[in-house]
Amino acid sequence: MSRNLGRQTFGSADDAGKVMTVAEAQALLQQWVENPRLQLHMQQVAYLMKCWAAERLQLSEADQHRWYIAGLLHDADWEKWPEDHCSRIVEELEKRHQDPEIIHAIASHGPRHFGVLPQSSMDRMLYAFDELSGLIHAYSLMRPEGYTGMEVKGVMKRFREKKFAANVSREEILEACEMAGISLEELIAFIITHQPAVTQE
Ligand SMILES: [Fe+2]
Ligand SMILES: [Fe+2]
Predict the structure, then answer these.
(1) What is the pLDDT of residues 51-64, one digit of tens each?
(2) Which ligand is nearest to the CA of 3?
(3) Distance CA 46, CA 108 (A)
């Protein structure tokens, strides 16, 4: 379902700070992704990344944009080339001379699958948000009121229920929280506060 990337360095230092626009990223997604659930997932993760960069790290707008693009493209190749996830998008971004930190973040969003450890805070937050965002979205879909009134303890209950969103690895989420130095509860609280703002277009 994915493969070990077999390397640890991505992109070129000469390309630091070079980042495509949101419109360019969306054009790429339009070519590569049809599934609306997958599109929504990437938009959700992108938005969480941008909000974290802005609110928790007080990063510049340029940096917030870099965090957004990393989230927006992290699963871009999943639908067309599941066997090669995420090498296709990594290679595409290298070809387009994109910022190496963005490429590294994408390359390390599944360390157990891609063999690349998250290092920067961008890397670690992408890993932390990815699966948990999906679990929380699945929870919103089974609640009649969606995200309205959702509480951390309700998410925690689902988190402990192995059968709920069984494909979401709890182990990886806990590992990601530890790497990011954030408690699971704090991360859940951040996601349920911000994720409802992202709706399907
Ligand atoms: Fe992925
Ligand atoms: Fe993902």
Answers:
(1) 999 999 999 999 99
(2) 1
(3) 16
For residue 24, the CA-to-ligand 2 centroid distance in Å is 20
Whether omega before 86 lies within 30 degrees of 0, making that bond cis, reads yes
- Going from the C-alpha of 145 to that of each of 74, 192, 199, the distances in angstroms are 29, 13, 15
For domain 19-197, the CATH class is mainly alpha
d(CA 63, CA 72): 14
Query: 86 C-alpha to center of ligand 1: Å?
Result: 7
**Ranges of each domain in the chain:** 19-197
List pLDDT tens digits, range 111-144: 999 999 999 999 999 999 999 999 999 999 999 9
Distance 76 CA to ligand 1 centre (A): 8
